[in-house]
Structure prediction request, 180 residues.
Amino acid sequence: MSNVLVITTSLRAGSNSDILAEQLIAGAKEAGHSVGLISLKGKEIRFCIGCLACQKTQRCIQKDDAPGIADKVLNADTLVFVTPIYYYEMSGQMKTLLDRLNPLYSADYRFRNIYMLSTAAEDEAFVPEKAVSGLQGWVDCFEKAELSGSLFCGGLNDSGEASGAEKHLKAAFDFGRSLE
Prediction:
């Protein structure tokens, strides 16, 4: 079984994406995976400054929480990014983290399968397309990895609303069970 790392990117207390991430984790554990969780709540992650020093050292020169997260990403077999959809795109903090994972580009990373779980107030099928495309762009830079699947849970607006959305809770659990 895989060493799965789930990264939740919502900064809202009681967020719907965090509630669904818990279900995803339960499903992944039931499937026999080892699962770690990183929440971006309370983390300091500065913007990438584009110095590219990390391409020589595989370390970022900035002293914040991103290098520690990068170390955990480097050693995971499977990654799951969990994000609310803001203006039809991934959260800004998720994009900032993806940029800061640049030291991994030239490193011997373990991850092969990457997934996305997203939530939004809107419920139309097109809502997560740009967020998935944005993550695909990041994945495309890592030749040994692939975007292996995504789950969108729409129609969730108020904080904590997902806890009563049986359809989405089950979908997230089943998505977790299906991780490779």
In short: The helical segments are 16-30, 54-57, 66-74, 92-100, 129-139, 166-177. The radius of gyration is 15 Å.
